Amino acid sequence: MAAKRALLVGLVLCFMNLMFAQSLAFAEVTMRILGVPDRLSFPLPKGTNIVLTATIKGGEVRGVWLSRNRDAQARFKLVPVGGGAYQVNLADRVLSAMIRAEGTGQFQIFVETSDGHIVASVPMHYAVTEPARMPPRIYVYVDGKKTEILSPSFAQIWEDMAMLTHVSDSSLWVLPAALPPGRFGTQTVAESYFLSPEHVDKIEVRFEEDAVGPVAEACVGEKTWSLRASNAANVLNLGMTAEIRSAWKEHGNLELMCSQAGMEEMRVVLKAPSKRLNLAGDSVKMTIIQRHLKEVPGSEGYVRIYIDDITAAQVLLSITTADGQTLVDQTSVRRGDEVTFTVGEGHYKLTVEKLVNFIAGDDYGAFTVSQVTPPEVDERAEREKIERLMDIIEESDVIFIRNDREYTPAGAAEHIRKKYEYAHEEIRTAEGFIDRVAGRSWISGRDYLVRLPDGREIKAKRWLRDQLAKLPQSEEQKQ
Q1: Strands 263-271, 193-194: parallel, antiparallel or unpaired by DSSP?
Q2: Domain check: are 14 and 89 in the same one?
Q3: Closest Cα to residue 433, out of 473, 378, 383, 478?
Q4: Backbone torsions φ then ψ of 311, nearest 5 degrees
Q5: Does 104 reside within a domain?
Q6: In whole angstroms, what is the distance from residue 364 CA to residue 241 CA?
Q7: Which residues pair with 148 in a beta bridge?
Q8: Which one of 250, 271, 292 terminates a domain?
Q9: Are the C-beta atoms of residues 314 and 306 closer than 8 Å to each other?
Q10: What does the H/E/C string look like for the chain?
């Protein structure tokens, strides 16, 4: 019994010694901050640099950063300068914008050691004399509905920092590809957005209410149109005209240039969907890794192919566009299979050249996309089929779901007839009508759904294709 007690006491003493040793190791890590002014306010005077230096002693350092508090995900990395010293310049525009977004407050310098311990400096207080200037917000009116295409907000940076990725060997944090890239502050450049010019009614740029000299221009090639203020000086608008739409469709890109106080704030490129793919030699070869989405070369990022897991020498494949259209619904393909699709005025064929499985490593598929001669179309017969499909919609006993809202057959038919009336010159076939008019929303790009009498919900495209297949044989023979 005494032996067991002695063993227990020994284990407790060993554990206490271990904890004490770890405590000592942790206590050895010290941090000294130099360069903190007595009073700190943002923004810093023009041309002023305030460099904070954190000197770390004891222990192996894994990282040093500046943030509001220990749990904040918004972290600004300090750069090592040798001798255990790390520095940050508070004049950095990114850091300044992030700090100013929160208003008057405090921040700290944090050190993480190799064993996971975090050491914090004393809080450093600051005041904000001028909040960070927000980039303008951009809206487009598509078929009468107002949609925001870009809404950067400094105030959300702190909250959404989990979405940020770190740039190696840099003190900067940047937004991932899912959000418009660019720097916070001047010369923010947004990625391209695909919009069909014929469906855009108006473009609106909204600056902050106290913006000085807000200016916005739409540029297509050498032509420029100024956005004009209406009821409020900070809200500028450009109504689409036949001239602008024609130039936009012909050139392909419309650039929005936004500025205030004489400084460029933002450049946004609105791209018109391609009329056709620019295939080198009428065909291109592609290799796609399973579970990956890849842009078709020659589509300028507009057409994208996705393949799922390659299993038993087959794979599920789909073809979509950057503005949300589905050109080819998810379908199973094998080597040698061909899938046809259209882009604007062009007709194309995707051929499955091979599907490769590895015991270890990424499986992939090899494909060829080539241009094909469009089939002869009896446009009169196709128009008759389109009219019949619209009648079938109106006379059906299903519920249509558009952008999460339910519509009766009569309500759905009325909406689809208006869309077809607007776009009928571009629609040559019943399949095109299903894909581009009756099967998806022009505003959100989302597929319409149909709720059947038994409660099941399926894509409207599938339901419409089933109805198309049921049309009388005599009409089918008119093709």
Answers
A1: parallel
A2: yes
A3: 383
A4: -140, 135
A5: yes
A6: 46
A7: 139
A8: 271
A9: no
A10: CHHHHHHHHHHHHHHHHHHHHHHHHHHCCEEEEECCCCCCEECCCCCCCCEEEEEEECCCEEEEEEECCCCCCCCEECEEEECCEEEEECCCHHHHHHHHHCCCEEEEEEEEECCCCEEECCCEEEEECCCCCCCCEEEEEECCEEEEEECCCHHHHCCCHHHCEECCCCCCEECCCCCCCCCCCCCEECCCEECCHHHEEEEEEECCCCCCCCEEEEEECCEEEECEECCCCCEEEEECCHHHHHHHHHHCEEEEEEEECCEEEEEEEEECCCCCCCCHHHEEEEEEECCEEEECCCCCCCEEEEECCCECCEEEEEEEECCCCEEEEEEEEECCCEEEEEECCEEEEEEEEEEECCCCCCCEEEEEEEECCCCCCCHHHHHHHHHHHHHHHHHCCCEEEECCEEECHHHHHHHHHHHHHHHHHHCCCHHHHHHHHHCECCCCCCECEEECCCCCEEEHHHHHHHHHHCCCHHHHCCC
Question: Hunting for tokens 């241009």 — which residue is that?
Answer: 371
Cβ pair 364, 356 in contact under 8 A: yes
Label residues 116-128 b or e (16+ Cβ within 10 Å = b). Answer: eeebebeebebeb
Structure tokens at 78: 């300090």
Q: What is the pLDDT of residues 270-285, one digit of tens each?
A: 888 887 898 888 899 9
Structure tokens at 446: 């989302």
Strand-pairing partners, residue 138, are 150, 205
Beta bridge partners of 318: 306
Write out the residue range of the structural domain in which residue 403 sits: 379-476
Judge whether 406 lies within some domain. Answer: yes
Which token pair is 458? Answer: 């399926």
Please report the pLDDT score of residue 170 as a whole number: 32
Q: Are 68 and 100 within one domain?
A: yes
Q: Is the peptide bond before 273 cis (omega within 30 degrees of 0)?
A: no
Antiparallel, parallel or unpaired: β 61-67 and 314-321: unpaired
Residues 212 and 303 grouped into a single domain: no
Tokens of 476: 């089918």
Q: Is the model's pLDDT at 459 over the cut of 50?
A: yes
pLDDT average, residue stretch 187-214 = 77
At 342, which CATH number? 2.60.98.40
Q: How confident is the model at residue 18 (pLDDT cuts 50, 70, 90)?
A: very low
pLDDT for the residue 263: 65
The confidence score (pLDDT) of residue 309 equals 92
Task: For Cα atoms 328, 333, 339, give the angle at the middle one, nearest 5 degrees.
Answer: 40
Q: Say whether both 299 and 254 belong to one domain.
A: no
Total structural domains within the chain: 4
Residue 82: CA atoms inside 13 Å, Cβ hemisphere, count? Answer: 0
**Pair type for strands 283-289 and 364-371:** antiparallel
Tokens of 456: 């099941």
CA separation for the pair 372, 340 (Å, rounded): 9
334 and 401 inside one domain? no
